[in-house]
C-alpha cells in the first residue's frame, strides 16, 4: 500500500525556489544578468516601445544590464510604483542614473513626478516558474492585478527574468494567475506565446 502525499503548496514551492536563488554566489548572479543582457529580448521591439523593468529585491535577477542595453538602443524605460495593495502598479519614466525613492515596502521606485507611462513590455520578477509560463510571485498579487488591468485595454508582452534554478515542475496555477509570454534565464529563452 503506497502512501498518498499532498502536492507541495505555492508557499512551499516559493520557499524552496527562493532558497535556491539565495544560494547563488554574487559572481553567478552577475554572470546571469550579463548573459541575459547580451542575448537581449527574443523579439523585435516596436518603434517607440516602452519597457518596464523593476528594482531587484531579495536576490532577484538584476534587470539593469538588460535595461541599460535597451536604453543604449533608444528604448524608453519605466519602473513600477506601488500605489496600494489590490491595485495595479503604476509605471513612471526612468532611465539609468535617475534618482529613486524608497517605498514603504522598502523597494526603490521612480520619482512620482516622472511622467506616467503605459508599458508595452514588462520585465517581471518572480520566485518560481514552470515550463508552461506560470509564475509564483511573493503572494501579494501586484503583477497579476496589473497584467489583468493592462491586458484589458492593450496588448502587453510579459518577460519573466529568473535564474535557471528557479524553474519548478509545475506551478499550481489558479484562475486569476496570469501566465508569462517568455522567461529568460542565464541558460535559455523559454517562449510560451504559442500556448
UniProtKB/TrEMBL annotation:
Its cofactor is Mg(2+). One of its GO terms (molecular function) is 5-formyltetrahydrofolate cyclo-ligase activity. It is an enzyme of class 6 (ligase). It comes from Rhodopseudomonas telluris. Keywords: ATP-binding, Ligase, Magnesium, Metal-binding, Nucleotide-binding. The keyword Nucleotide-binding applies. Its EC number is 6.3.3.2. It catalyses: (6S)-5-formyl-5,6,7,8-tetrahydrofolate + ATP = (6R)-5,10-methenyltetrahydrofolate + ADP + phosphate. InterPro entries: FTHF_cligase, FTHF_cligase-like_sf, NagB/RpiA_transferase-like. Pfam families: 5-FTHF_cyc-lig. This is 5-formyltetrahydrofolate cyclo-ligase. Coiled coil: none annotated. It comes from the Bacteria. Belongs to the 5-formyltetrahydrofolate cyclo-ligase family.
